[in-house]
Amino acid sequence: MPRLTIEEHGTYEVEAGTRLVRAIEDAGINILHRCGGYAKCTTCRVEFLSGEPAQMTKAEKEKWKEKDTSGVRLSCQMTIEDEMRIKVINTVESTGLEDPGDTPKEDITPEPEWVPTNT
Ligand code: FES
């Protein structure tokens, strides 16, 4: 099983194919996902220290075109296939919000259309 390391929290064995945002929550971290995992809010962003996937969903790419987002990715727009080391940026505790947002579905939403990160 791939290992997910979350800075300042720990390292976890995660079933391959698990949506990253859900794996972070499963680790007990109240990461924000204000749009429910639809690549609209960007609150689920994480910083990659290693293991950043070389592809992204078209929905994530479109969202990043609107913003300057070097070094961060949307955890709702990927699954864990290999070892990853990340830093979580927005949590309920760090923002003071009352809740993280609607629970993201198990599968990536909207239906993913994959594109390379560097195009
Ligand atoms: S962009 Fe909103 S939860 Fe990921």
Chart the SSEs and their pairings:
Blueprint: E1 3-6, E2 10-13, E3 18-19, H1 20-26, E4 45-50, E5 55-57, H2 58-65, E6 72-74, E7 79-80, E8 84-88, H3 92-95, E9 114-116
Parallel strand pairs: 1-8
Antiparallel strand pairs: 1-2, 3-7, 4-6, 4-8, 5-9
What this model shows, in words?
The chain is of the alpha+beta class. The protein has a single domain (3-96), classed as Roll (Ubiquitin-like (UB roll)). It is built from three helices and nine strands; from the N terminus they run βββαββαβββαβ. It has helices at 20-26, 58-65, 92-95; strands spanning 3-6, 10-13, 18-19, 45-50, 55-57, 72-74, 79-80, 84-88, 114-116. The strands form three sheets. Strands 2-1-8-4-6 form a five-stranded mixed beta sheet, with helices on one face. A two-stranded antiparallel sheet has the order 3-7. A two-stranded antiparallel sheet has the order 5-9. The radius of gyration is 13 Å and the shape is globular. The model has no long low-confidence stretch (mean pLDDT 95). The protein binds FE2/S2 (inorganic) cluster. FE2/S2 (inorganic) cluster binds at residues 33-35, 37, 39-44, 74, 76.
Q: In CATH terms, what is the fold-level topology?
A: Ubiquitin-like (UB roll)
Assembly of the depicted chains? single chain
Specify the helix fraction band.
10-25%
Percent strand: 25-35%
Averaged pLDDT, please? 95
Q: DSSP helix count?
A: 3
Q: Count the E strands.
A: 9
- Under CATH at level 1, the class stands as Alpha Beta
What is the second-level CATH architecture?
Roll
User: By CATH's scheme, which homologous superfamily applies?
Assistant: Beta-grasp domain
Radius of gyration: 13 Å
Strand line-up across the major sheet: 2-1-8-4-6
Question: Which sheet architecture does the biggest sheet show?
Answer: 5 strands, mixed
What distance separates the N and C termini? 30 Å
Structural class: alpha+beta
